Structure formats: structure tokens, C-alpha cells
TrEMBL record:
SUPFAM superfamilies: Class I glutamine amidotransferase-like, P-loop containing nucleoside triphosphate hydrolases. GO terms for biological process: cobalamin biosynthetic process. The a and c carboxylates of cobyrinate are activated for nucleophilic attack via formation of a phosphorylated intermediate by ATP. CbiA catalyzes first the amidation of the c-carboxylate, and then that of the a-carboxylate. One of its GO terms (molecular function) is ATP binding. Catalyzes the ATP-dependent amidation of the two carboxylate groups at positions a and c of cobyrinate, using either L-glutamine or ammonia as the nitrogen source. It comes from Thermodesulfatator atlanticus. Residues 10-188 form the CobQ/CobB/MinD/ParA nucleotide binding domain. The record marks H437 as: Increases nucleophilicity of active site Cys. HAMAP family: CobB_CbiA. The gene is cbiA. Belongs to the CobB/CbiA family. This is Cobyrinate a,c-diamide synthase.
Length: 484
């Protein structure tokens, strides 16, 4: 087993909303400006923060999640994307110690332990001084085997405020304060649904990232941060590799301001199994690309783009006709909403594709939020009955005016809310739509099923896609070599 020297850092905090995303974005952008190759990662099932990190780095951001993935898979995925020539920046979620139980399972601390990465703590310093030293010391006591590398103080107002906290932390712990984030005036980071506004909708995303880079450059010891990243110990393991194959089917992927939520690995897996991905702008393209064998419609906020989606009548009609004729489609959350009849939001109604006999009402509070554990209980185009799924959901919409005898709900949820009554997974013809999002490294069958459905759709296909193989030593995706 090989050893890899990979500069890396985990950015965490004492709680959600403490400023770790602002610091992570500023740090990534500042390191990039210095000429570093920065590879961003996001802990947890997050698309929006990951999108901003990708924008800041000019490089795809990859998700690492102990709930979806085994420790072996996390390590192999990280080794497959990180580089000794670059600096990997891994942004945590919530507080460092916060997981799914009192033991901190699936926490950022657990991820940092798997990756043996130095941890920088971002601390919200609002209305607090010496007490922050107790928090830092407590983290060191509870997580004795973590490599704590330093502290960033956020929301600093005055020099005296900074001085008291810095002296307290450096007196009671062995950690250094590496810098601060001052309370930013005339700076507003638009928020929506418990998090940041997606950069695709912001309009000035690059300007925001540049401003955060300047804040970090002016207030953080970047040289010390770089040294810390290079102090990370070597990692042993087998990198995950994605084989390059000749594409033999075409899968349409809706990707625009309305549909943004795609894990890079999900798209890479489809390509590694023989799919050519054809990206479709549902807001502007008036017709479907020719020769599609399946569709993948990810999540997003179709309600915010409802008028543009509704106005694109020709594309909606083509989609409905193709889906009624049996075109396979896998739709997640926002994609599920788009395939319904209408979306109701803030007193307005927007017509959607209409292939599913369901309307969707968007509320001001979450209707489902968190991890999902589900079992497939009925036949469907993608998963065998009995298949176990781990995923996540985050939706403010709920189904209304459902024509129940026209659809089938095929997922029974042990954890999560889903469509209704602990059920999810709407099936109609060759459509599978769910509020549940899946990651291919947690459910490799997902990619195989979608590509296989595309193969079966393609005229003249005679054989089944062979099994996806996840070898423990390489976690390499198998792929179809059938000649068509």
C-alpha cells in the first residue's frame, strides 16, 4: 500500500454559522491568488457551499461524508482527488464535535481523524472573550487524537477584543491564533433556506470571493497556514480511479440556475460507465438534444426560476412527450418538482412539465431536512426490491393535489420525511423521482442503474451492463465494454 504526502487542512468551528464558510472561501481564493493549486472538499451532503468553494478554487469541490461512505471509501476518494503539488482544503459542517449522536458519529472531527488532517478552528467571537479558550481546551480534551493547528477569530470589532481572546487562548492552550476576520461592514452575503444563496443565482459571486480573499490576505498569517498544511502526516491507501471509456449512450443532464445540485462523482461515475453527458439549459434551450437515451435531473430551486421554466413551453412539451413514450429519467428534489404539474410559491403558480400528476407547494419552513435511510419496497426502473439506500433530503416543498392511483411510491423510510408518510420514490413509467439525494460513493448501484436504463433504451442493445465492481484495494468502477 502506497504512502502519499498531501498538504491538507480541515476548517471547522464551534457551531454552524460561526464563519467557517466565509473563511474557507477567502482562504481558498487567497491561496489560489498566491499561485497554489487548491483542491476543495466539503464535509456532508452540501451542494451550495461546495459550489462556492468550487468557484473560489476554480476546481471541482468533492463531498466527503461519513454517513454515506465507509472510512475506506472516504480515504480512497480523498487520495484520488488530492495532490502533493496542491493544497487540499476541507470545509467541515456544523460544529467540530457535532454528529448524528452523542458520540459524535459522522462529525467533522471523525472526518479529520480519518484524513489525519490539521484542524483550524474558526470561532465566532461575538459577545465573548476568555470563554473561547475554554471551548478550544475542551475540544483538545475530548478529541485527544486530533491535530489542532490553530485558531481564526471571526467577528472581531476592536483591537482590545482581539487581544483578550488571543492571550486567553494562547495562555490556556498550546494553539496560536493565526488571524482574524473583522466584522465586515457594507458586506451582505445573501442567505436562503438555512444557508448561502447559490453562486449561480448571486450575480456577483466572483466579486464576493475576491473581497473575502482580500480580507484573509490582510488579516491572516497565510504563510503559517501553508506551513500547517504541509505538516500533515503521509496517508496510506489506494486512490479511487475513474476509468476513461468510449461513450456509447447519451444521458441528458439539466444544468442551469434552476438545477445545480450534482455531486461531481455522480457525473464522473456515469461517464466511467459509458455515458456521454449532454447538458441542457431548461431555461433557454427550446428543444431537447437529439439522440438522448435517459435523463438525469438534479436538485435546485426551480421555484425561483419558475417563470422562466414555465415560459419555455416547447421544451416542457418535448420532455413530457419523451417521458410518456418511456424515456428513462432519474429526478431528485427540484427535478422531481419540475416533472410535476405546477409549483405554487409566494402566491404564484408556475406550470411545469406535467408528466407526474402532482403539484408542489413551497413553504417558508423546511418540510424535510437531514439524512435519509430507505428500503426499496416495490418494483421500479432502477433499484431491485430490498435495496438499502442512504441519502439526504432538504426541501421546502411538499406534494399537493396528488393523483395517487397514477403513481407508485417505492421507498420506505426508516429515517427522514420524504414524499409523505415516511414514503418516497415516485415511479411513473420509466421515471423515478424522489426528494432523497444519493451519492454514488454511498450507493454505486445508482450509476449502474441509470446507465443500464439508457442502454436498454438504445435501439439494438442486446446485453445487460455487467455488475459494478468496487474492489477493496482500488474501489474502481467497473464499466460496460459491450460494442454497439
Amino acid at each position: 500500500m502506497h504512502k502519499f504526502t498531501l498538504p491538507r487542512l480541515v476548517i471547522s468551528a464551534q457551531k454552524g454559522g460561526a464563519g467557517k464558510t466565509l473563511f474557507a472561501l477567502g482562504l481558498v481564493a487567497a491561496l489560489k491568488k498566491k499561485g497554489h493549486w487548491v483542491i476543495p472538499f466539503k464535509k456532508g451532503p452540501d451542494y451550495i457551499d461546495a459550489g462556492w468553494l468550487s468557484l473560489a478554487a476554480g476546481h471541482p469541490c468533492y463531498n466527503l461524508d461519513p454517513f454515506f461512505m465507509s472510512q475506506e471509501t472516504i480515504l480512497s476518494s480523498f487520495l484520488g482527488h488530492a495532490s502533493p503539488e496542491g493544497i487540499s482544503v476541507i470545509e467541515g459542517n456544523r460544529g467540530l464535535l457535532d454528529g448524528v449522536d452523542s458520540q459524535g458519529s459522522c462529525s467533522t472531527a471523525q472526518l479529520a481523524r480519518v484524513l489525519k488532517a490539521p484542524v483550524i478552528l474558526v470561532l465566532d467571537s461575538t459577545k465573548v472573550t476568555r470563554s473561547l479558550a475554554a471551548f478550544v481546551k475542551g475540544c483538545q480534551v475530548i478529541e485527544k487524537d486530533l491535530f489542532f493547528g490553530g485558531v481564526i477569530l471571526n467577528q472581531i470589532v476592536r483591537l482590545r477584543h482581539e487581544k483578550i481572546i488571543t492571550e486567553s487562548i494562547e495562555k490556556y492552550t498550546d494553539l496560536k491564533v493565526l488571524g482574524i476576520l473583522p466584522r465586515l461592514k457594507n458586506f451582505s452575503f445573501p442567505m436562503r433556506h438555512l444557508g448561502l444563496l447559490p453562486w449561480q443565482e448571486h450575480g456577483e459571486g466572483e466579486e464576493v470571493v475576491e473581497k473575502l480573499a482580500r480580507v484573509v490576505e490582510e488579516n491572516v498569517d497565510l504563510d503559517a497556514v501553508e506551513r500547517l498544511a504541509h505538516e500533515a502526516v503521509p496517508l496510506s491507501g489506494a486512490p479511487l480511479r475513474w476509468p476513461a471509456v468510449q461513450p456509447v449512450v447519451k444521458i441528458g443532464v439539466l444544468r442551469d440556475e434552476a438545477f445545480q445540485f450534482y455531486y461531481p462523482e455522480n457525473l464522473m461515475a456515469l461517464e466511467s460507465l459509458g455515458a456521454e453527458l449532454v447538458y441542457i439549459d431548461a431555461l433557454r434551450e427550446r428543444t431537447l438534444p437529439s439522440g438522448l437515451h435517459a435523463l438525469y435531473i438534479g436538485g435546485g430551486f426551480p421555484e425561483t426560476q419558475g417563470e422562466a421554466l414555465a415560459d419555455n413551453l416547447s421544451l416542457r412539451q418535448e420532455l413530457r412527450e419523451a417521458l410518456e413514450e418511456g424515456l428513462p429519467a432519474y429526478a431528485e428534489c427540484g427535478g422531481l418538482m419540475y416533472l410535476g404539474r405546477r409549483i405554487f410559491w409566494r402566491g404564484k403558480s408556475f406550470d411545469m412539465v406535467g408528466v407526474l400528476p402532482i403539484d408542489f407547494a413551497v413553504h417558508e419552513r423546511p418540510q424535510g431536512h437531514g439524512y435519509v435511510q430507505a428500503t426499496v419496497i416495490k418494483p421500479n426502473p432502477f433499484y431491485p426490491v430490498g435495496t438499502k439506500l442512504k441519502g439526504h433530503e432538504f426541501h421546502y416543498s411538499c406534494p399537493v393535489n396528488v393523483k395517487e392511483n397514477a403513481i407508485s411510491l417505492v421507498l420506505k423510510l426508516e429515517k427522514g420525511h420524504g414524499f409523505a408518510q415516511k414514503l418516497d420514490g415516485v415511479v411513473y413509467r420509466n421515471i423515478f423521482g424522489a426528494y432523497t439525494h444519493v451519492h454514488v460513493l454511498g450507493q454505486p448501484l445508482w450509476a449502474k442503474a441509470l446507465v443500464e436504463a439508457a442502454f436498454k433504451r438504445k435501439e439494438g442493445f442486446k446485453e445487460d451492463l455487467r455488475e459494478v465492481v468496487w474492489r477493496p484495494e482500488s474501489l474502481m468502477l467497473g464499466y460496460c465494454q459491450t460494442k454497439i
